[in-house]
C-alpha cells in the first residue's frame, strides 16, 4: 500500500501529537490541555439529519465573543482544519509557497507538504520575533504566511508593530494567518481589531485550550467576509456535528463564558506558580509565557525529560536544545512536577 501512495505522502513524516507519542502516568502536562473537565447536557434528537455546514447559532455566539460579525466567522474541526483550508484555498500545488517562522507549530509545514505546496522557512530572531527583512526578501511566490502568537512552543507574543508591518508587506500578495490558539489567556494581545483595516488578515482560534474542549475538536477562522467565502468553497459539506455545535453554544453562553474566564485565571495563576518555582532552581531558565504553558531550558533537557517520563510525569520535549514545554495544569499537578524537578537537581 505504501508504494501506491502519492510520492509526497511516502516521504511525509506525520506530526507527532502528544497522543501519538504516548506515555504512561498520572500527570499529563504535555498537550497544553485544560485541567478542567466541564459537564454539558446534550439533546441527542435529530441525529438522523445532517447538520448545517455552518450552524448559525454557533457562529453568532462566537462572533459576539470575538467582537466580529457572524459573516466573518468560519467554524472548523479544530484550528488544524483552518490551517489546511488556508493552504488548499490559496496555494497552487507545485507553484505557490507558504512561509512560517520556526520554532513554531508543526502543522503549518505538514499541511503544506501533504498538499504539495512549497514550505519556505524564515527562523525567528534570537529573541523569537519576526525577522522582517528576511521575510520581505522571501515573499516571491508566497501566498500564505503563518504567525503564531502566543507562539507554540516558545510562549512569547509577537510584537504588534511587526505584525502590522508584515500585513503591509503582504498587501495584495499574500494572506497573513495569525494563529491565536492561546489568545484567550491574554486577550488584550489579539489582532482581531486589525481585521477592519487589513483584508489579507485571517485569524485562527480554538476552543481546545481556554474553553477546556480539546476533545470536541472545534475551531474558528476569523476574516473578512470575502475571504470566508473562499474558504467555504473548499470546506467539507458537514464539518461540525450536532453535538459539537450544541456544546460550543453552551460554552459560549453567558454562564459558559464566566466559567471559562474564571478557569483561565486559575490556569494563569498556576503558570505563574510554576514559573516562580522553576526559576528558583539553579541552572534553570524559564522563558516568559503568555499561553497555558511555559518553555523551560534545563542543563540537560533530554535527561530530565526521560526522568520525568519514567516517573509518570508526561511533559513535551522541544526541538529547541535542552528545552521542555510544560503545560500549566491544576495545582496538584504543578506541585508534583515542581517537587520532582527540584529533587532531581539536588
Please tell me about this protein's structure.
By secondary structure, the chain is an alpha/beta fold. The chain folds into two domains: 2-36 and 256-344, Aspartate Aminotransferase, domain 1, CATH 3.90.1150.10; 56-253, 3-Layer(aba) Sandwich (Aspartate Aminotransferase, domain 2). Helices cover 36% and strands 15% of the residues. The chain has twelve helices and 13 strands. The protein has a seven-stranded mixed beta sheet with strand order 2-8-7-6-5-3-4, sandwiched between helices. Strand 12 and strand 13 form a beta hairpin. It is globular.
Give a brief description.
By secondary structure, this protein is α/β, with parallel strands linked by helices. The chain folds into 2 domains: 2-36 and 256-344, Alpha-Beta Complex (Aspartate Aminotransferase, domain 1); 56-253, Type I PLP-dependent aspartate aminotransferase-like (Major domain) (Aspartate Aminotransferase, domain 2), CATH 3.40.640.10. Helix content is 36%, strand content 15%.
Amino acid at each position: 500500500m505504501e508504494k501506491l501512495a502519492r510520492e509526497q505522502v511516502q516521504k511525509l513524516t506525520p506530526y507527532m501529537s502528544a497522543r501519538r507519542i504516548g506515555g504512561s502516568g498520572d500527570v499529563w502536562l504535555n498537550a497544553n490541555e485544560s485541567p478542567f473537565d466541564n459537564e454539558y447536557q446534550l439533546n441527542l434528537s435529530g441525529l438522523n439529519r445532517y447538520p448545517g455546514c455552518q450552524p448559525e447559532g454557533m457562529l453568532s455566539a462566537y462572533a459576539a465573543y470575538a467582537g466580529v460579525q457572524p459573516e466573518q466567522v468560519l467554524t472548523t474541526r479544530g484550528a488544524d482544519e483552518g490551517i489546511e483550508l488556508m493552504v488548499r484555498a490559496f496555494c497552487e500545488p507545485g507553484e505557490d509557497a507558504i512561509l512560517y517562522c520556526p520554532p513554531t507549530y508543526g502543522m503549518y509545514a505538514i499541511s503544506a507538504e501533504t498538499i504539495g505546496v512549497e514550505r519556505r522557512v524564515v527562523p525567528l530572531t534570537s529573541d523569537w520575533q519576526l525577522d522582517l527583512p528576511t521575510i520581505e526578501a522571501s515573499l516571491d511566490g508566497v501566498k500564505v504566511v503563518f504567525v503564531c502568537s502566543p507562539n507554540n512552543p516558545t510562549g512569547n507574543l509577537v510584537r504588534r508593530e511587526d505584525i502590522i508591518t508584515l500585513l503591509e508587506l503582504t498587501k495584495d500578495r499574500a494572506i497573513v494567518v495569525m494563529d491565536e490558539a492561546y489568545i484567550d489567556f491574554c486577550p488584550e494581545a489579539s489582532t482581531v481589531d486589525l481585521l477592519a483595516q487589513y483584508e489579507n488578515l485571517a485569524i485562527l482560534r480554538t476552543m481546545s485550550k481556554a474553553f477546556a474542549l480539546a476533545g470536541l475538536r472545534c475551531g474558528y477562522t476569523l476574516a473578512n467576509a470575502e475571504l470566508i467565502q473562499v474558504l467555504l468553497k473548499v470546506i467539507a459539506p458537514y464539518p461540525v456535528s450536532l453535538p459539537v455545535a450544541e456544546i460550543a453554544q453552551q460554552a459560549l453562553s453567558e454562564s459558559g463564558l464566566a466559567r471559562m474566564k474564571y478557569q483561565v485565571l486559575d490556569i494563569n495563576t498556576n503558570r505563574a506558580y510554576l514559573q516562580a518555582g522553576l526559576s528558583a532552581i539553579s541552572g534553570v531558565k524559564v522563558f516568559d509565557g503568555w499561553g497555558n504553558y511555559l518553555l523551560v531550558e534545563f542543563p540537560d533537557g533530554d535527561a530530565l525529560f526521560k526522568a520525568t517520563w519514567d516517573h509518570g510525569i508526561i511533559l513535551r520535549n522541544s526541538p529547541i536544545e535542552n528545552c521542555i514545554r510544560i503545560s500549566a495544569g491544576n495545582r496538584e499537578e504543578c506541585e508534583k512536577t515542581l517537587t520532582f524537578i527540584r529533587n532531581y537537581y539536588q
